[in-house]
Design brief:
- By secondary structure, the protein is mostly beta strands.
- It has a domain of about 45 residues: Rubrerythrin, domain 2.
- Helix content is about 10%, strand content about 15%.
- Bound molecules: zinc ion.
- The site of zinc ion (ZN) has 8 residues, from loops.
Length: about 90
């Protein structure tokens, strides 16, 4: 039997119910105040995943040419090959 998490608007509490799939969720009432003003918690699974920190994700990648501070160093003339001086 699956667990369902609900949030009660009236008493502002989260509560969990064991319900079979055949139960009408519209008739679910709060276990604290018996109010029918409850909402299913759909994000119970994703909320347990820690959020990615944007800064560490960006720094982890390899540095590309666009990120080099001075692009001029890439435009230096290519030196002649050493073998050309052996003749
Ligand atoms: Zn309640």
């Amino acid at each position: 039997m699956p667990l369902y998490e609900y949030y009660c608007e009236d008493c502002r509490k989260d509560f969990t119910l064991l319900q079979s799939a055949s139960v009408n969720k519209q008739e679910t009432v709060c276990s604290e105040c018996n109010s029918s003003n409850v909402h299913p918690q759909m994000s119970s699974f994703s909320s347990k995943i820690p959020p990615r920190t944007e800064s560490s994700a960006v720094k982890a990648g390899p540095v590309t040419a666009d990120e080099l501070p001075d692009k001029g160093v890439l435009n230096l003339p290519i030196p002649k090959h050493v073998s050309e001086y052996h003749d």
